[in-house]
Amino acid sequence: MEIQQDMTISEKLKILTDAAKYDVACTSSGVDRNNKGKGMGDAHACGICHTFASDGRCVSLLKILYTNECIYDCKYCINRKSNDVKRASFTPDEVCKLTMEFYRRNYIEGLFLSSGILKSPDFTMGLIYETLWKLRNEHHFFGYIHVKAIPGASPEIIEKIGFLADRMSTNLELPTKESLKALAPNKNQKNILAPMRQIQAGSGNLIAPVNDGYSLITRRGNKMKSKFVPAGQSTQMIIGATPETDYQLMSVTEYMYKEYKMKRVFYSAFVNVNHNIDAPAPVGPNPLLREHRLYQADWLLRYYGFMVNELLNEKRPNFNVVLDPKCDWAVNHLERFPVEIMRADYYTLLRVPGIGVKSAKRITSARRYNNLNFESLKKMGVVLKRAAYFITCNGKTMFPLNMNQDFIARSLADTDKRQTYAIEQDTTYKQMTLMDMGVRVNG
Q1: Contact (CB, 8 A) for 174 and 183
Q2: CA angle 429, 17, 127 (to 5 degrees)
Q3: CA–CA gap between residue 428 and residue 420 (Å, rounded)
């Protein structure tokens, strides 16, 4: 371990932004808050800007680690204690300075703050609490703040931070106890799930004193100025480091959404940065493509009314790498198609490939007043190169349909070849990071 002394804030920023790139947080804020002319920044439900890391991952906000020093030795983590990497730690004042200066320059609209574990979970979370308290109370920052909760931290410190942050997240890391024990022996599911349950249950069991930066909270539910984690919580799983199937991963995801009311579950394709894990053969030709399929399935769970056991099962435990999960489901359930656009209910329309949430709502609204045709469907956002195989419009098809499973599957796969190739070759669109922009911070 190489601990750097007397580093400038810019040197720390370079180390600690790079160290944070494996924490996925591509989210809008999910909360509205106006500073009412009394402070700096606002938080808007859909107003958080996004940027992309150098490896193509979408990241939001000023995304940094408080420190990359860590007392744990997780095999998959670049910041594990046994690695010989440059170490750096911010101070609370330095994080405040970075956040405020970047906000004033319009580089960011908020802060994503994670951390390695310095001395102990409570010690580290105490430093993060001090940082957030200063941002909110001394700098009057009203922008969006997303904070990682450290497993093993006391409920009291989680409670205090929850009134200062908009969103909190606790990384599930790996989907099973066995995998966690093998790759992260210092962590256990009990400590990971405890802050999740606390955040899910909300506040009310503790007294939050006024001089800690938020209003007095009582069990009687008196009116309070600050809400407890108003934008909810999220989590992240590493995929590909251990042998879980897509079915197992999505079953854990479904459980997280139902039992812990997660706003998002993120998936991070395993990168063997330490070259010390004999990872199982990845599902499909590319781990990034597998990650992509998991995100597509996650969307189906959250917005399209699908259940995991409709998409996968023990006999068919992994997603088709050639077809996206929705198209794959439709091809395997041709007995349900074609559906008539003028009569199908909203949830039936959502199951048609090429019809999304917005276009399904537009269809159900517009057809009350007019007969729809394929041209009007295209204007509503329906992707006809997919949907045409599964719909009729006023009893007519767009072209003579061949309801042969192999034919439709090949036709749909051809339409996705360009996107699949881009993911496999890692040639997807990339946006400059703050470092690419040549950001300089005095200090």
Answers
A1: yes
A2: 145
A3: 10
DSSP for 200-263?
HH-S-SS---GGGTS----TT----SS-SSTT-EEEEEEESSS---HHHHHHHHHHHHHHS--S
Q: What is the pLDDT of residues 139-179, one digit of tens each?
A: 999 988 999 999 999 999 999 999 999 999 999 999 999 99
In whole numbers, what is the pLDDT of the chain averaged over residues? 84
User: Exposure pattern of 355-373 as b/e (b: 16+ CB <10 Å)?
Assistant: bbeebbebbeeebeeeebe
Distance of CA 426 to the CA centre of its chain: 20
Q: Quickly tell me which residue has 């107003």 as its tokens.
A: 47
Residues of the chain within CATH 3.20.20 domain(s) are 2-241
Residue 51 is predicted with a pLDDT of 53
Beta strands 58-60 and 50-52: pairing type?
antiparallel
* CATH topology (fold) of 2-241: TIM Barrel (3.20.20)
| Strand intervals (E) in 91-157 | 110-114, 144-148
Gap between the Cα atoms of 14 and 420, Å rounded = 32
CA distance 357 to 361: 6
* Top-confidence residue, 293 or 221: 293
Asked if residues 167 and 30 have their Cβ atoms less than 8 Å apart, the reply is yes
> What digits encode the pLDDT tens for the residues 345-387?
999 999 999 999 999 999 999 999 999 999 999 999 999 999 9
pLDDT in tens, 408-429: 999 999 877 666 655 555 544 4
Residue 9's H or E segment, with its range, is helix 9-18
